[in-house]
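Worked problem 6 (solution included).
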Amino acid sequence: MRRCPTCGASYTSAARLCEADGSPLVDATSPVASSRPPAGGARCPLCGEGIVERDGYCSSCGRRALSSRPTPPLVPVGSPLAGGVVVATPGGDEYVVRGAGGATTRVVLGEPSSIEREADLLERIGGTGPFPHVAECGVDDVHGSYLAMAAPPADARALSEVGAGLTLATAIGVIRALVDAAQVVEKIGFAWEPQRDDVHVRPDGSIKLSRVRVPRKLGQGERLDARAVVEAVGPTFVPTPALEGPSRAFRLLLPHVPIPGDAGNSISDVRREIAAVEIDLAPPTDDGLRIAGVCDPGLRRAHNEDALVFATGTTDGERWSALVVCDGVSSSSHADRASALASKTACDALAQSARAGDVSGDAGKTAVARAIRAAHAAVCSEPVEVTDENPPGTTIVVALVWRQQLTVGWVGDSRAYWVSDDDAEQLTRDHSWAVEAIARGEVTEAEAVMSPLAHALTRCLGPLEVADPDVPVEPGARPRFAEVKPGILARDLPGAGWVVLCSDGFWNYFSRPADVATLVHIGAGASSPARVARRLVNHALARGGQDNVTALVYRHR
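Solution. The predicted structure is:
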């Protein structure tokens, strides 16, 4: 998809010049070439870094955050137009005109070819469904070609006015209705990408279109880009109401980033995505569970190599909870299998220890260390084909809660945080080159962040941890692997709070404990663990979602 850097209008990848102002088009993902935005502009809801420019594109990430702002009206209120008088100027090239009999129409001005295409489409549809009825298509003596259509119903409000106030279910219903409308447009043979202000929402959640912009006819065998229809209005619902919803819904509404093996852009492809979102739309409830997690592939990865597992129960009347998050080493083979196997093995081992009796104090440390070593042995013993260059590996972080004690263990750079009402703390210390080089005084924190080794692991689970490369292995025998050395920490939990386990796909964007606490505390008084987990993952997706993202949350009370 391409766009005009001047007016923000969107076009297909084959277009070269803007029909409105003749500007050369740029790729839709290209940053806006403009001067620094004035202070006080709206912060981009997608990356959180840039400012939304006048054309609706972010000054930092270059993605469209909002529809273009309307240009000043060319025909002022009170002026004659299309046989009537202008009574309102919604923006751009559109006007509300009252005729001699008192009836109002929505009049669009434009190039003759553009007006003819839109009129042709709408006349074929005949004003059914959400589409407007054509009142007249003609030429004004002063302002040129115009198209007059029935105005949206009086109870319908522009999506730009009501979008953030809709429920997420209603917002997805709007998206579904637009994709249904896109199918009608495609059958008649036109491309279509609505603008946000073309869409009006009625109190019952149904939509009405004030117009249908059709830049061109489809070529033979060409399909309409349904994903572009979703992208045109999706950011209207970001960050609200999407932020508190399932990550699948959040991904649907964000600008799409094509990745290998991705779903296509056809109407049927997008409808399948919407159907999957609607299954997830049931709001999470605080049903007494203290644990919930989200494991999302992110926006740029074709496969999810993260994994999470948790278990809870009671032993001798005492409640216990076990939580595990693993992040497969992306440069290794079978990383997804390694993380899935390690997380399940560790959780099973923790649960077995908790069921066997008291796991407080040193017993808790022993149980956590034993669980991590069991996970390491399981990954090393997995019967998969490996090579010397990239044997399977995974990070791990586990938490065991017994009575008022929390025991955390980890290998690699998956993390654990503790967040209370007045405190936030990172409980783990990454096993990474950056952390260890800083501790040795070899580099500063700023230098470590910029180093290509910033995320290089110094420990992980699996055959990457070779015991002794100089010791020969008998033919046909599996190599011997090193004993893993987890980090272990135990602390008392003096009061209510939250334990957050996460992969680096989350903490790459929110690494400071204070940042994690801020996200946890947004509406935390009424939040269930499921809502908190959704919020954490969605914020990481909004920042870019470059990696798989996992957050597992335990509420202590």
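Discussion: The first strand starts at residue 2 and ends at 3.
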